[in-house]
Specification:
469 residues; alpha/beta; six-stranded mixed β-sheet; flat
Length: 469
């Protein structure tokens, strides 16, 4: 809740800055651009053009800030990075407005265009940056004072553990409040520690949730690096920041980056699989595309619904629980393609010649029309258009036993279509699901908008050729 309050302030002052900048620029254009051209003072009238600009242009600025990822991770911000980010977005937005609005101005001299550009950029940058700087500084001081300090859990043993506890307790500038520790080995002397032991590695999920942990720090010697995999598997579903001491660098898997914390650098384990701006574009694309497709295909969905209803007994929409991002269950929607009570004897994967699939259902699967209701899940935020296909917990448990790396797919939202699906196809048993897993793991390691676009093209080709299940 406290984070949402600060997010509101950032958005509010950004919106206020955009309104003020555009209003002042509107006056500037009347006084210093149009007046010299006409030779007489031009009256500043708040006409329709002014109010349209006041409505649309601030929204454009908020969209640019959103796409830049500025409104993510609002508590721990770098003021230097904030300066650079504000400068770049102010410049980008001014260029957009220059070519869409300013070039239409009536001017007496071409230099008016340059002056208008500089004035608009300066107003937007100054009015946006300084409220941000003030608010970020306030947050920084409150973090050091305690109210916004990061609830921190240290996982470790030996000298590495005690040294990091002492460091974080002495250096309040780090912004961490050490709540407790989880020892890696049983040899840890609990009585000698200045903070309480909260449990074992096997209890990590419960500990982090119960104590509302914001940040986890790994502090143990490299010879105990075998525990890293177990630790990461326990906390991968939880939205916490994870850092590690530098000596663990060779043992860390995935993407990491050095993030200095005063004079002691920690390895920041980066959960972001795509650049922030690509994540934002992907999110916007998901919602816009899902809404558009649901509206455009509404007549098709109505026809399909009628055909399903009159061709076989059972509901039109088939829904059941699947596992989504961070291991959270959600209800997925599809057009029913099987006979009623097809899984009366328990969950079972379908095969190409599965007798449970109805004739209509077979056609729907080949054309992927059965997945049209999946776009409802996209609008609800449970799924993305491109991402690993979600599975039922019954099968997830079996896959994890054969290949624990499956849990890494749950870093992202599941998708309607995936790299594994277009390259491997439907899986008829758990072993095939494990084989297909390798394709989706490869997707996770190389996620980008380009890869998503390629998957969408391949999916369309699959639909056109009728090669669905």
């Amino acid at each position: 809740m406290k984070h949402k309050k600060h997010l509101f302030f950032y958005i509010f002052f950004d919106y206020l800055a955009a309104i003020t900048a555009w209003a002042l620029f509107f006056i500037y254009r009347k006084k210093y651009v149009e007046t010299p051209f006409f030779g007489n003072p031009v009256e500043v009238r708040l006409d329709t053009t002014f109010f349209i600009g006041l409505l649309c242009i601030p929204l454009m600025w908020l969209i640019l800030h959103f796409l830049s990822g500025y409104y993510r991770n609002i508590i721990r911000k770098s003021r230097l990075k904030e300066l650079a980010q504000t400068f770049v977005i102010s410049l980008t937005g001014t260029i957009i407005l220059h070519f869409t609005v300013i070039l239409n101005d009536i001017t007496s001299n071409y230099t008016d265009y340059y002056r208008s550009f500089i004035v608009l950029f300066s107003l937007q940058f100054v009015l946006t940056y300084f409220p941000r700087l003030i608010h970020t500084t306030i947050i920084h001081h409150r973090m050091l004072a305690g109210p916004l300090a990061f609830q921190t859990l240290i996982i470790g043993t030996g000298n590495e553990l005690t040294e990091n506890i002492q460091y974080l307790q002495k250096n309040k500038y780090a912004g961490n409040r050490v709540i407790g520790i989880v020892p890696v080995t049983k040899s840890c002397d609990e009585n000698a520690l200045p903070v309480p032991v909260l449990g074992k590695i096997s209890d990590l999920s419960r500990i982090i949730t119960k104590h509302q942990i914001d940040e986890v720090i790994l502090a143990f010697s490299p010879d105990l690096s075998r525990y890293i995999g177990e630790i990461m598997n326990k906390i991968i579903y939880l939205q916490v920041s994870v850092k590690a001491i530098p000596s663990l660098y060779p043992a860390l898997l995935g993407r990491v980056k050095i993030q200095p914390l005063l004079d002691v650098p920690y390895l920041q384990i980066n959960y972001e699989l795509m650049p922030v701006w690509q994540v934002m574009v992907k999110t916007v694309f998901d919602y816009v595309s899902a809404l558009t497709i649901l509206v455009v295909t509404l007549p098709v969905s109505l026809v399909v619904s009628v055909i399903i209803k009159i061709s076989s007994d059972g509901p039109v929409i088939y829904s059941h629980e699947r596992i989504g991002r961070h291991g959270k269950p959600f209800t997925i929607y599809k057009f029913r393609t099987m006979v009623k009570n097809a899984e009366i004897n328990g969950p079972a994967l379908s095969s190409r010649n599965d007798p449970r699939i109805t004739p209509v259902g077979r056609f729907l699967r080949k054309t992927r029309l059965d997945e049209l209701p999946n776009f409802i899940n996209v609008l609800k935020g449970d799924m993305s258009i491109v991402g690993p296909r979600p599975e039922r917990k019954f099968f997830v448990d079996q896959i994890v036993k054969k290949d624990p790396d499956y849990i890494y797919l749950q870093k992202v939202k599941p998708g309607i279509t995936s790299w594994g699906q277009v390259q491997y196809g439907y899986a008829e048993n758990v072993d095939q699901m494990v084989e297909r897993l390798q394709y989706d793991l490869n997707y996770i390691k190389n996620m980008s908008l380009y890869i998503d676009f390629k998957i969408l093209i391949l999916t369309l080709l699959t639909i056109c050729r009728g090669r669905g299940m």
